[in-house]
Design brief:
Blueprint: H1 2-51, H2 55-69, H3 89-94, H4 110-121, H5 133-139
Helix pairs in contact: 2-4, 4-5
The structure holds heme C.
Heme C binds near residues 67, 79, 91 and 92.
């Protein structure tokens, strides 16, 4: 009788061990899945950026605009942020009298201005309409 009780206990013990280890495995699997899902999303985000190529506009931005509007587009006390608003083509082409924002129509080609506008419109979380070379030409005063 004692032996039977012991073996039942032993079986229960082994059974509960296997339950615990199953649970553990499942948790590990879940973690891996979450990580994989996150990675896939990241890859997609990067993928989107490569599909549309804004590198020409980025070059213009880094050389011509970044000194004031900063690398992260957020500007500072003196220069406005370019985040969360569509790039104002009229401002870039004609400048704003009496401010540090000069007219760029003689410094940059219409192609360069549309490139930089599209870079701004699709960077730092911005997602605004594409700007064509014709849009730029049309806004020159
Ligand atoms: C010397 C500093 C300086 C440089 C360089 C400069 N900006 Fe500006 N930018 C300003 C200032 C100052 C303003 C705010 C003008 C005003 O008071 O309306 C401004 C405003 C703007 C705005 C309007 C922002 C809004 O609030 O709608 C845009 C768009 C912009 N700049 C884009 C550019 C682009 C593109 C370049 C590069 C080709 C550039 N800026 C280069 C100083 C600068």
């Amino acid at each position: 009788m004692k032996k039977l009780t012991l073996s039942i206990l032993a079986i229960l013990f082994v059974f509960s061990l296997s339950l615990v280890s199953c649970g553990g495995e499942e948790e590990t699997k879940d973690d891996t899945n979450t990580e994989q899902n996150t990675k896939v999303e990241d890859e997609n985000a990067e993928g989107d950026a490569t599909v549309a190529d804004y590198s020409a506009g980025k070059d213009v931005y880094v050389k011509t605009c970044q000194v004031c509007h900063q690398e992260n587009g957020e500007g500072n006390e003196a220069f406005p942020t370019l985040k969360d608003k569509a790039c104002n083509i009229n401002t870039v082409v004609n400048g704003v009298d009496g401010t540090a924002m000069v007219s760029f129509k003689d410094q940059l080609t219409n192609q360069e201005i549309s490139d930089v506008a599209n870079y701004i419109n699709h960077t730092w979380g911005n997602n605004f309409a594409d700007v064509t070379v014709d849009d730029v030409a049309a806004s020159a005063k």
